[in-house]
Amino acid sequence: MTTSMPFTPAPPPTAKSDAIAAQPDPSGLRLEVRLPTDCDVEITWKSEQGEKVFSHCRAIDITEGGVAVECPEALPLLCSVIVTVPRFHVAALVQVKHCTWQKSIYVLGLRFLARTTTLQNDPYATDHYELLRLSPGAEQETIERTYRKLARRFHPDNPETGDAETFLRVAEAHRVLSDPKRRKAYDAERIAVRSSPRFQFRSAEFFSGVLGEQNRRLAILCLLYRKGTSNYEHPGLSMYDLEQLTGCTQGELGFSLWYNCERGYARATDRDYCLTAAGVDFVEQKLAEDRGEFRAIASGTNPPMVSIAQMFASAKPETTVRH
Fold first, then answer.
1. Residue 261 pLDDT grade (very low, low, confident, very high; cuts 50, 70, 90)
2. Chain segment 19-29, per-residue pLDDT in tens
3. Which CATH number fits domain 204-299: 3.40.109.10, 3.60.10.10, 3.20.20.140, 1.10.10.10?
4. Cα–Cα distance between 319 and 181 in angstroms, integer?
5. Cβ–Cβ under 8 Å, residues 53 and 5
6. Fold annotation for 128-195
């Protein structure tokens, strides 16, 4: 159950346990120069009473390693929290490194663990249904059950299978699909994006025959090159992504992916494929041969991913009235 909390600061800590909980973790203090910011953020965390959402918190300074956020309630040290920034369509999984009472509000020191986009029309965003291994017609009960299972598996506190990036992407998929209005909008956008080709190859013969197989291998590497250079934090593409981007089936892609991995140009994880350093060198060598169609695939039109610190630091003071 998710509870939306109004922006009403809790009273200052009085109990001994509260005072202890507020002490900073020295290992987590940010040493970088802190850039001032003023930006509304939403904080989601799971307490013993269930999931809580603080919808009107405020980020006050930022570095590449973390962010300071004003929050109406004290949060336990080292707990994992999701910070969503609607203004920039980005969400981050963070860890609470310190929590201190300052004048009239708690200030949380949060360290970044992972980051993902919340844009629904981003062609490189993970498909929510695919990530949760659900059909687009899945019932709400099925979505909740699957989410709980995957959240336990990938939560950063799980020493065996924890994965901060995957956990954040699963949480974002659940945030969208568990809300009827968000899900309806996502479904409409998903159909529009998935039905329009994102790359136009010259003809059906481009991937046909022996030369076509060679073209397919290089096209895959160019797509991975493009993804890595535009989003270095999350450089992988799933099998589904590659099917959509190339127009090839999983069966047609299988041999090409095997070859690229065996040659050391790419590596496979349990969820996607990424380019290796050898793959980067190989792609750039091929692009130097001036093959225009592959240069277009590798360069694309997506701007490089702006660092999260630059993003926050560019924020001008919000005009939202706080209560």
1. very high
2. 334 455 555 55
3. 1.10.10.10
4. 26
5. yes
6. Helix Hairpins (1.10.287)
